[in-house]
Amino acid sequence: MEPAATSHAEGPVPPVHIAIIMDGNGRWAKARGLPRTAGHKRGAEAVRRTVEAAREMGVSYLTLYAFSSENWKRPAGEVTDLMGLLRLYLRNEVKVLHKNGIRLRVIGDRSRLGPDIVTLIEESEAKTAVNGALTLTLALSYGGRQEIVEAARRLAVEVAAGRLAPDAIDEAAISRNLFTADMPDPDLVIRTSGEKRISNFLLWQSAYAEFVFLDVLWPDFGRDELEAAIGDFHRRERRYGASG
Ligand code: FPP
């Protein structure tokens, strides 16, 4: 078996695109007798640690599921708290991201977000657009099925207008009409907290991804856990190589 290619002093080349379903904030708080908000707050700290670790490890794309389309159904107070954390993150963290060469992007249905958050997103995306060290994508008000429906609608409009033949609709045409049009598909999808579901996250894009499910709750996630997941990913790749 050939040794894994190395580019970084620390070890094998990491996956190009890692996507994470951050789960377990509520359980983390409950186990400590704290309100769920406390779990989300610690979850935001885990986001900071993970972004920094991913950048240092040479990951090119990190996509985090920060708020799903279904999360709007949570109690109003919790939605307000989560939006407040996102607002704080966008206000305070973008300077650090920019300094570290990180590009920030947001995917999801912006029409449901508060206008001030949309403005913060637009400003953050514009400010960091030139950065190339790592692309951090936050999935906000995001749903994979809704994203595919939207792509189908856009293609239908093209067909109805006579600009596109139905036969010309192929996988590439769908991909081009997703939020992630110019990003590579995720190589590795991680979900924390022991749950083993995809929960409407990057449904189309993760068709060939490796999935790693970790028992750790999201607020306890950090560099070690990211390294462990990447290690698992590399072991699987080697196994496929040997049997393939
Ligand atoms: C799952 O925990 C997590 C979320 C609903 C969203 C993730 C949000 C954060 C990490 C905080 C803010 C994010 C940013 C980018 C600043 P859960 O509430 O579903 O946990 P449970 O399943 O244990 O109840």
Please give a structural write-up.
The chain has helices at residues 25-31, 36-57, 76-99, 115-128, 144-160, 171-176, 223-243, and strands spanning 6-8, 11-12, 17-21, 61-68, 102-107, 134-142, 188-191, 210-213. With 244 residues, it is of the alpha/beta class. The chain has one domain (17-143, 185-234): Undecaprenyl pyrophosphate synthetase, CATH 3.40.1180. Helix 1 (25-31) packs across helix 2 (36-57) and helix 2 packs parallel to helix 3. It is globular, with a radius of gyration of 19 Å. The model is unreliable at 1-9 (pLDDT under 50). It binds farnesyl diphosphate. Residues 22-27, 40, 43-44, 47, 66-67, 71, 85-86, 89, 138, 193, 218 line the site of farnesyl diphosphate.
Give the overall average pLDDT: 94
- Overall form: globular
- Secondary structural class: alpha/beta
Order of helices and strands: EEEHHEHEHEHHEEH
| Distinct ligands, ions and cofactors found in the model | farnesyl diphosphate
Helicity, as a percent range: 40-55%
Quote the CATH topology: Undecaprenyl pyrophosphate synthetase
The percent range for strand residues is 15-25%
Radius of gyration: 19 Å
Helix count equals 7
Strand order of the largest sheet: 5-6-4-3-7-8
Distance between the termini: 12 Å
CATH class: Alpha Beta
Q: Spell out the CATH superfamily.
A: Decaprenyl diphosphate synthase-like
SS elements, strand count? 8
Second-tier CATH architecture: 3-Layer(aba) Sandwich
